[in-house]
Structures are given as C-alpha cells and as structure tokens.
Design a protein that fits this description.
Number of helices: 1
Protein name: DUF397 domain-containing protein
Structural class: alpha+beta
Strand order of the largest sheet: 1-2-3-4
Domain DUF397: 2-53
Radius of gyration: 12 Å
Distance between the termini: 32 Å
Number of strands: 4
Pfam family, one: DUF397
InterPro entries: DUF397
Strand content: 25-35%
Shape: globular
Length: 59
C-alpha cells in the first residue's frame, strides 16, 4: 500500500495522506502522525465525500 499527499498540499507538512487500502476501501491519515488513527471509507463513501469537496459543499 502506498500513502500519498494531495497535489494541493504543496510543501506544507500539515496534510492528510490517502491510500487505496483495497479495491473497496480508502484510508486517510494525518501526515504528521502516520502511526496514529486512520479513517477508512468504502468507495461509495469516498466518492460522495470527494464530490462534495469538488462542489464546495464544505465552504
């Protein structure tokens, strides 16, 4: 599994990292605490979340 930061993160060290855990699950963790807790979403939840971000529903 490969964790990665979003391209919008730039050089900031206070980011979230994302990983495709399985074909059906996505993980999110704090880049400053990679051994800390991880949020896990199924692909439907992940898609709904990213669409909400894209559509600026969290402003």
């Amino acid at each position: 599994m490969q964790w990665f930061e979003a391209s919008y993160s730039g050089s900031a060290r206070e980011c979230v990292e994302i990983a495709w855990l399985t074909a059906q699950h996505v993980g999110i963790r704090d880049s400053k605490n990679p051994d800390g807790p991880t949020l896990v979403f199924d692909t439907d939840e992940w898609n709904a979340f990213t669409i909400s971000i894209r559509d600026s529903q969290f402003d």
